[in-house]
Write a structure and sequence with these properties.
Length: 99
Protein backbone atom coordinates (compact mmCIF):
# COMPACT_ATOMS: atom_id res chain seq x y z
CA UNK A 1 0.00 0.00 0.00
CA UNK A 2 1.49 3.38 -0.93
CA UNK A 3 2.57 5.67 1.86
CA UNK A 4 0.94 9.03 2.51
CA UNK A 5 3.05 11.91 1.16
CA UNK A 6 4.80 13.74 3.96
CA UNK A 7 4.17 10.96 6.47
CA UNK A 8 6.52 8.33 7.86
CA UNK A 9 7.12 5.98 4.93
CA UNK A 10 6.63 2.94 7.18
CA UNK A 11 3.07 3.92 8.01
CA UNK A 12 0.26 2.75 5.73
CA UNK A 13 -3.09 4.46 5.14
CA UNK A 14 -5.06 2.18 7.44
CA UNK A 15 -2.67 2.76 10.32
CA UNK A 16 -2.66 6.50 9.60
CA UNK A 17 -6.47 6.59 9.66
CA UNK A 18 -6.61 4.76 12.99
CA UNK A 19 -4.01 7.07 14.54
CA UNK A 20 -5.75 10.11 13.11
CA UNK A 21 -9.04 8.98 14.65
CA UNK A 22 -7.21 8.49 17.97
CA UNK A 23 -8.83 5.08 18.19
CA UNK A 24 -5.77 3.73 19.96
CA UNK A 25 -6.28 6.22 22.80
CA UNK A 26 -9.91 5.23 23.44
CA UNK A 27 -10.74 3.81 26.85
CA UNK A 28 -12.95 0.75 26.98
CA UNK A 29 -14.28 -1.52 29.68
CA UNK A 30 -14.25 -4.83 27.78
CA UNK A 31 -14.03 -6.24 24.25
CA UNK A 32 -17.75 -5.67 23.65
CA UNK A 33 -17.33 -1.98 24.54
CA UNK A 34 -14.27 -1.69 22.27
CA UNK A 35 -16.16 -3.36 19.40
CA UNK A 36 -19.10 -0.99 19.95
CA UNK A 37 -16.83 2.07 19.82
CA UNK A 38 -14.97 0.75 16.79
CA UNK A 39 -18.26 0.14 14.95
CA UNK A 40 -19.44 3.67 15.82
CA UNK A 41 -16.16 5.09 14.43
CA UNK A 42 -16.45 2.91 11.33
CA UNK A 43 -20.07 3.97 10.67
CA UNK A 44 -19.60 7.61 11.63
CA UNK A 45 -16.15 8.35 10.18
CA UNK A 46 -14.51 5.68 8.03
CA UNK A 47 -17.44 4.63 5.85
CA UNK A 48 -18.83 8.12 5.20
CA UNK A 49 -15.65 9.91 4.08
CA UNK A 50 -14.28 9.89 0.54
CA UNK A 51 -11.79 7.03 0.28
CA UNK A 52 -8.28 8.07 -0.76
CA UNK A 53 -7.79 5.27 -3.30
CA UNK A 54 -11.24 4.75 -4.83
CA UNK A 55 -12.33 8.41 -4.44
CA UNK A 56 -15.74 7.10 -3.44
CA UNK A 57 -17.70 7.02 -0.19
CA UNK A 58 -17.46 3.41 1.05
CA UNK A 59 -21.16 3.18 2.07
CA UNK A 60 -22.25 4.23 -1.42
CA UNK A 61 -19.89 1.71 -3.01
CA UNK A 62 -21.06 -1.07 -0.67
CA UNK A 63 -24.70 -0.49 -1.66
CA UNK A 64 -23.81 -0.77 -5.38
CA UNK A 65 -21.74 -3.93 -4.93
CA UNK A 66 -24.58 -5.90 -3.31
CA UNK A 67 -22.17 -8.12 -1.39
CA UNK A 68 -23.43 -11.29 0.20
CA UNK A 69 -23.12 -11.72 3.95
CA UNK A 70 -21.08 -14.41 5.59
CA UNK A 71 -22.72 -17.84 5.63
CA UNK A 72 -24.59 -18.77 8.79
CA UNK A 73 -22.74 -22.09 8.93
CA UNK A 74 -19.19 -21.59 10.25
CA UNK A 75 -16.24 -22.68 8.14
CA UNK A 76 -14.70 -25.99 9.14
CA UNK A 77 -10.97 -25.61 9.66
CA UNK A 78 -9.29 -28.78 8.45
CA UNK A 79 -5.69 -27.62 8.29
CA UNK A 80 -3.61 -25.03 10.10
CA UNK A 81 -0.06 -23.84 9.62
CA UNK A 82 1.91 -21.13 11.42
CA UNK A 83 2.91 -18.19 9.20
CA UNK A 84 4.84 -15.01 9.90
CA UNK A 85 3.41 -11.71 8.73
CA UNK A 86 5.91 -9.23 7.32
CA UNK A 87 5.98 -5.56 8.31
CA UNK A 88 4.07 -4.68 5.14
CA UNK A 89 1.30 -7.17 6.07
CA UNK A 90 2.16 -9.88 3.55
CA UNK A 91 2.18 -13.59 4.32
CA UNK A 92 4.44 -16.00 2.46
CA UNK A 93 2.57 -19.07 1.23
CA UNK A 94 4.04 -21.63 -1.19
CA UNK A 95 6.88 -19.17 -2.00
CA UNK A 96 4.37 -16.47 -2.99
CA UNK A 97 3.51 -13.30 -1.08
CA UNK A 98 -0.19 -12.90 -0.26
CA UNK A 99 -1.92 -9.88 1.22
Amino acid sequence: MPAIPGEDQGEDRATHTVYKAELLAVEFSDIADLNHQARAWQDGVANVRVHGTTHEVPLERFSRERLLGMPSIPFVITYTEARKVSLDCFISWNAKMKS
